[in-house]
Amino acid sequence: MMDNQQPIASQKQDGNKWRVAAIVFIAVTVLLVGIGTFLFTKQGGELANANKKNDGNVKTIKDIKDKLANLEKGETANGDTIKSETATDANKGYLVVSEWGIKFKLPEGLAGLKYSFSDQFGLVFALDEISKTGCGAAGDLGSLSASSSSVVKTPADSPTGTYGSRLSASAVNGLYFFWVSPQYACGNSQTDINVGAEKVQLIKNMVKAVEPIK
């Protein structure tokens, strides 16, 4: 009886071994498939994020190019027109007399030159740096008058009292301009007088070049 049952037990053990092997194989296969799926999904997500990032970079570069193109056209990203600074730049470094539509190129030494209008002299000049040295009164640094007439020799020739030496042969903005030198040298001392005289000469040379405001 024992001799007949031994092969049957051996066969059962062999069958169990195959079952165990099959189960282990299936488990390993499932594990490998799971790991592979996880890695594929992760890589796919990273690629998707990378693509999104690249798309963002492409859009950013495109946005920059579009903005530059808009700036060249004088427009903002919203389509608003940018006010050109050309007009402002064109007047940089000039003394602009908007009332007469003219301007003068400021030479070195006349930075801060200002003007105002006087009933007696017309347009008068002033400099803060010498206004407290005896050269602060109207007309101390010379003055300008304007007229639609090319010949104005005395105050009586014009209802506004314009007179002086004509600056240009042709009219600017329909007006002729006349330089009037100071009636006397200004200054509290000889040094102040010399400085004032230098400033007057600079102003006189400046006003010879009358330019229209553009």
Task: Give a concise summary.
This protein is of the alpha+beta class and 214 residues long. 46% of the residues lie in helices and 15% in strands.
Written description of the protein model:
With 214 residues, the protein is of the alpha+beta class. It folds into 2 domains: 82 residues, no CATH class; 125 residues, no CATH class. The chain is 46% helix and 15% strand. β3 and β4 form a beta hairpin. The protein starts with a helix and ends with a strand. The relative contact order is 0.10.
User: Within the largest sheet, what's the order of strands?
Assistant: 3-4-5-7-6
The run of helices and strands is: HHEEEEHEEEHE
Number of domains: 2
C-alpha end-to-end distance: 127 Å
Mean pLDDT: 75
C-alpha Rg, in Å? 46 Å
Work out the helicity level: 40-55%
Q: Could you say which structural class the secondary elements and strand pairing correspond to?
A: alpha+beta
Mass-distribution shape:
rod-shaped
Number of strands: 8
* Proportion of beta-strand residues: 5-15%
- Spans where pLDDT lies below 50 across 5 or more residues: 1-6, 80-87, 158-162
Number of helices: 4
The biggest beta sheet is recorded as: 5 strands, antiparallel
